[in-house]
Amino acid sequence: MKKIWIGSSWKMNKTSSEVTTFCDAITPILEQVPGTIQTFLIPPFPYVREVAEAVDRYGTCVGVQNICWAAQGAFTGEISAGMAKDIGALIVEIGHSERRQMFNETDETVNRKVRAALGTGLKPLVCVGDTAEEKRWGVSAEAIVRQVKIALFGLSKDELHNVIIAYEPVWAIGEQGVPASPYEAENGLYTIRQALIDMFGEDKAQQIILLYGGSVHQDNAAELIAQPSIDGLFVGRAAWDAEGYAELLSIVGCYCE
Ligand code: 13P
Question: Which CATH number do you get for residue 117?
Answer without folding.
Answer: 3.20.20.70
